[in-house]
Amino acid sequence: MSELSAQAPRGPIGKIIDSDIFYSYRTSPVAIVASIVAVVLILAAVLAPWIAPYDPFNPRTLNLMDGFTKPMSESFSGNYFLMGADHQGRDVFSTILHGSRVSLFVGLSATLFSMTLGVGLGLVAGYRGGLADAVIMRVADVQLSFPAILIALLIFGVARGLIPPSQQENTALIVLVLAIGLANWAQFARTVRGATMVERQKDYVSAARIMGVNPFFILIRHILPNVVGPVLVIATIGLALAIIEEATLSYLGVGVPPTQPSLGTLIRIGQQFLFSGEWWILFFPGITLILLALSVNLLGDWLRDALNPRLR
Amino acid sequence: MLAFILKRLGQSILVMLAVAFISFMMFRYVGDPVASMVSQEATIADQELLRDRLGLNDPFYEQFFRFLGNAVQGQFGISYRLQTPVADLILSRLPATIELAFTSSAIALILGIVLGVFTALNPKNWASAAIMAFSLVGVSLPTFLIGIGLIYIFAVELQWLPSFGRGQVVNLGFWTTGFLTESGIRSIILPAITLSLFQMTLIMRLVRAEMLEVLRQDYIKFARARGLSKRAINFGHALKNTLVPVITITGLQLGSVIAFAIITETVFQWPGVGSLFINSVAVVDVPVMSAYLMFIAFVFVVINLIVDILYYIVDPRLRIGGPARGN
Fold first, then answer.
1. pLDDT tens for each residue of B252-300
2. Domain count, chain B
3. Assigned domain for B14 exists
4. Which of A240, A158, A177 shows the shortest CA–CA distance to B142?
5. pTM to 2 decimal places
6. Opening angle at CA B63, ends B57 and B69, nearest 5
7. Which residues make Cβ contacts (< 8 Å) with residue B195, sequence separation at least 6?
8. Is the pLDDT of residue B101 over 70?
9. Over residues B62-76, mean pLDDT
10. Domain with A173 in it: what CATH number?
11. Of A145, A149, A244, the CB nearest to B300
12. For residue A270, is it within any domain?
């Protein structure tokens, strides 16, 4: 009796708890800590407008007298600043909450974009072969031999030249997403192409083809679900990369517009006060960026090991 | 041998032509070259005249071939922002970037090999575990934050090293070097370390993996059986055989190092090609952007070509198999 109840299926939640992936997660302290840190940071960013103690971008609520208030102290005007205030009297904690919102938005959108593009092209290249495969993979090879940040910079620069200055502030975020997304598609394409070529040889694909299923349906319904594992791994590590790339571009002064500072912009601002001793303006955004990039990266590493059948 | 080199050369020229085409499209269609050259009082007729004289109304392929011809002769037009020939701008800033790239590659190579050998020979040591963990953290940190951290520790708190610029440089005519003055050498330390970290972790992991692989081979066991000293086995037999891939990777990475220098040069206000490029992107100085693109592509292609040929010479297996070589 007791043996039977241990074997009995326990519904969808029970299925997850019994799965290999969850077992690997439960036994990996790194994955648990990284996922908690990532979830806390993402939740804080999503809920920024509601949990931020101040509205850092509303000039009416800013008080220049609050400028350079030290962390965990009250300013002359009686405002309390957990992480201090910057030169304009903005609460550093609130700017970080809003800044990680921008960073995460750009990072997630860019990763989604490069994933869609790369998976699509990779499926076509791997399934079709021939000329399409040769062209797509040559372009991917050339692009992979250059650093992604350089490609993103070039695309960003070209887009800036093509868009009239009056439109630049509105379109800056979209341009940034496109630039980072286009710089990172090749990884997805290469992996998906390899996996697709393996799947294409298998009997279930031949069976579907003989039955006359159209190629698009075969790709989406039959092959795609079987290559989703490696795609998830690349997407997670790609998200960390995209966040770092966005921060780098914004730090270099060519990323988000100054009205919507991301973590990179905040670090750029904070560096101006490094020599005058106001360390908190730089330190807290820097730590947030490190925690965000590191936790997502570690999750990606764990996912890669967990999904790798050779390591099980 | 000759056929192999010719084939690789042909591929390199194709890549360069493709990059030149992208550069040309940027040069020609991003922004209006005429609008950036004429004064505000110029009439439309004047502008049309200038457009004709610059050949902007010629057929597309004629303009492209003229662009190619000029590029081969080292002419990339005039910077919109600084009003000087782009080729002069790049040449004057090239020494700073090359000195930085080579110094950081040297640091990466030396430290990477030393740490890699150490972690491979002492896999159970706590220091090895610490080094490996550190290398993982180092890879996932953004370069500019590492640079800022180094500035904070060594320039702000300890005040040992300068935080920006190249220090005093000596002009050798065609080259300016910072290696001959004390301030020049002190200035290159922090940027070179920042730039080398990523490459160093890469080399270290590679050396470690290769060493662990080689140490399991039979000829190492045989060397042990012969009673050779540990030093002779580890360095004379094992390390020597790991160095070929390490040198290849270092060579291939040199191009990336020059490109990554964009970030390091900005953090440390290093007057190199990378910071020139960033300033041009910010104000859409198209001639500089397209010239930089071609310059970087040229560096990549030349390095790839040299590494391929070296591989062919060093590794006899490639010669037997002939063209059967995957990517």
1. 777 778 778 888 998 888 888 888 888 888 777 888 888 888 888 888 8
2. 1
3. no
4. A240
5. 0.82
6. 150
7. B100, B101, B104, B143, B257, B260, B261, B264
8. yes
9. 80
10. 1.10.3720.10
11. A145
12. yes
For residue A77, being part of any structural domain is answered with: no
Enter the tokens of residue A89: 């009297």
- Please give the pLDDT value at position A106: 92
The domain tally of chain A equals 1
pLDDT at B201 over 50: yes
Whole-angstrom Cα distance, residue B163 to residue B159?
Answer: 9
- Contact (CB<8Å) A247/B137: no
Residue B163 lies in a domain: yes
In a domain, B134, yes or no: yes
B309 by Cβ neighbours in 10 Å (0-12 / 13-18 / 19+) ranks as middle
| Domain that residue B170 falls in | 86-284
In a domain, B147, yes or no: yes
Structural domain range at position A301: 19-52+86-311
pLDDT of residue A5: 47
Q: Is A160's CB within 8 Å of B284's CB? A: yes
Flag whether pLDDT at A4 surpasses 60: no
Q: Mind giving me the DSSP string for B239-305?
A: IHHHHHHHHHHHHHHHHHHHHHHHHHHHHTT--SHHHHHHHHHHTT-HHHHHHHHHHHHHHHHHHHH
Average pLDDT over residues B18-24: 85
Question: To the nearest 5 percent, what fractions of chain A are helix, strand and coil?
Answer: 75, 0, 20
Instruction: Calculate ∠ Cα A97-A102-A107, nearest 5°.
Output: 120
In a domain, A9, yes or no: no
Provide the token pair at A200: 């294409």
Q: Tell me the C-alpha distance between A87 and A83, whole Å.
A: 13
Residue A258 forms contact with B (CB below 8 Å):
no
Task: Among A58-67, A202-211, B281-290, name the one with the lowest average pLDDT.
Answer: A58-67
Could you give the CA distance from residue B199 to residue B197 in angstroms, rounded to a whole number?
Answer: 6
Domain assignment of residue A74, yes or no: no
Please state the rounded mean pLDDT for residues B27-52: 73
> Which residues are CB-contacts of B51 (< 8 A; sequence separation ≥ 6)?
B34, B57
Given a cut of 60, is residue A7 above it in pLDDT? no
- Which pLDDT score, from 0 to 100, does residue A311 have? 53
CB contact under 8 A, A146 and B281: no
- CATH number, position B114: 1.10.3720.10
Using an 8 Å CB-CB cutoff, list chain A residues near B151.
274
Residue A194: burial class (beta carbons within 10 Å; 0-12, 13-18, 19+): middle
A215 pLDDT band, cuts 50/70/90, is confident
Are B260 and A162 in contact (CB < 8 Å)?
no
Of A147, A254, A279, the CB nearest to B259: A147
Band (pLDDT 50/70/90 cuts) for residue A10 is low
The residues in A 38-97 lying below 8 A from B, measured between CB atoms, are none
In angstroms, the CA B72 to CA B20 distance is 10
Amino acid, res. B185: I
